[in-house]
Batch of 2 targets.
Target 1
Amino acid sequence: MLDYHLHLWPHHEHDTPLRVEQLAAYCEQALAAGVTELALTEHLFRFRQADSLLGGFWDDGRVPPALAESMAQYWKFHATADLDAYVACAQEAKDAGLPVVIGLEVDFYEGNMDAVAGLLAGYPFDVLLGSVHWVGGWRFDDLDDPVSMAEWSVREVDACWDAYTRAMEGLAASGACDVLAHPDVIKVAGHVPDAPAEWWDRIAEAAVASGMAAELSSSGWRKPVGEQYPAAGLLERFVARGVPLTTASDAHHLDHVAYRADDLRAVLGAAGVATLQGYRRRCPYTVAVSSGPAPAAGGGGTV
Ligand SMILES: [Zn+2]
Ligand SMILES: [Zn+2]
């Protein structure tokens, strides 16, 4: 098993020091749960380098002022850390023999993904998650922000899913990332169309066309929707089309590392999935769900 989606900081913190000891504690907890390899995948938008490149991306003149202001504050709070220091800390953990790979969770910045890819090409990333957390400047998954959550009562659920799916298709087509993270996170607050099959089909097709893997995440069990990402119907479509999978907790602190790994294993078993996909320097390799020994994380080039 893998835990290929881990953050170093909760969202309400932004000046916590990076420590290899924290990563060692993550690994210890994961290994105890039968998770043999971890990917560190902090959000790109937590770093100053993203601010230089992308700051103000939401301000296209079409975003309602309240949402634009909310996004501006969110961005200002978050985009403060140093990407070089983050990568150096992850590399130090890897060099010390911890079973970690170096990654990042990257949002979809429409029209800017070539610039994002250019920035990231300068770092030794093993895996890049691609995520959609906002559409048109609206952070639909920010459960703690009343301005964002109020939008759910004035928008049509089908239209939200459509906009989300279009962003996922754009993200996949950009080729900038390796894994579609929490593929149906648009359901996070509990809003699901009566007939989601159309959007599930499109998301699965986007994964196939791009060659990306998809993530099976336990984090939805901690959210109002109360369901893993992706839903069984979308997971079934990924499996039927041969889309490789990773597993993930999306932990933002130690308590959630390897969260409900056994339940994820059961979901995979029910879907008939016996292998997952890991990455070294953005090259995929196959790992058994039953957790055989993984290639040495420190060596690289073994795939
Ligand atoms: Zn995410
Ligand atoms: Zn995340």
Target 2
Amino acid sequence: MPTLDLTFDEVLSTTRAVRKRLDLTRPVEREVLKECLRLAQQAPTGSYAQNWHFVLVTDGEKRQRLAELWRSGADAYLAKRRGDGEGQVGRIMSAVDHLYEHLHEVPVHVIPCVTGRTDGAPGALQAGRWGSIYPAAWSFMLAARSRGLGTVLTTFHLMHEREAAELLGIPYDDVMQAALIPTAYTIGTDFKAGRRAPLETMVHWDSW
Ligand SMILES: Cc1cc2nc3c(=O)[nH]c(=O)nc-3n(C[C@H](O)[C@H](O)[C@H](O)COP(=O)(O)O)c2cc1C
């Protein structure tokens, strides 16, 4: 059952990338995670079967190792951007740095996976496969938000996907990991809508 009294539109507009306000001290009940996953199962997929798997990592040593892989993947990206930052970019970088330091302490790492590798496949096939898992991942994040949990969709660890697969026993040749979603209760539950460019800058009616 949702624990926050939010409307559907409020959930959609306030499900933020939560990094600094993840409560690292409060355990997350398995039952609440299963509720979120049952809702995620209602998302669309591009195949007749729901070709998803969700690996939930709570074991401390495994989270430690995943965090090392994540940091290693993040380093290349962050090297270019650290110190970039004023304004919104600076705020995001400071939040990413915080997660970088604390990822192993986040109580649950959720890894949505999809069956069937598409490495090097044409764009249309890639779109169908990634598009079969990301709606479910986002539904999980929305359901989590409405229950007082915070999440952030991350992809840094995928630079070392094979090592993560070995660590977690995921059959790499058949299954792609799509993300790593750190999940925890939030510190406070009040989140605002994010700043976005005016709609007119990205909407095209009938032609570009
Ligand atoms: C496909 C995708 C990959 C992402 N990868 C990462 C990541 O590896 N690390 C990270 O800290 N955030 C990652 N993010 C989160 C974005 O940085 C986040 O959505 C952005 O900061 C906007 O946050 P907001 O919606 O709360 O404004 C990713 C988001 C998406 C959609």
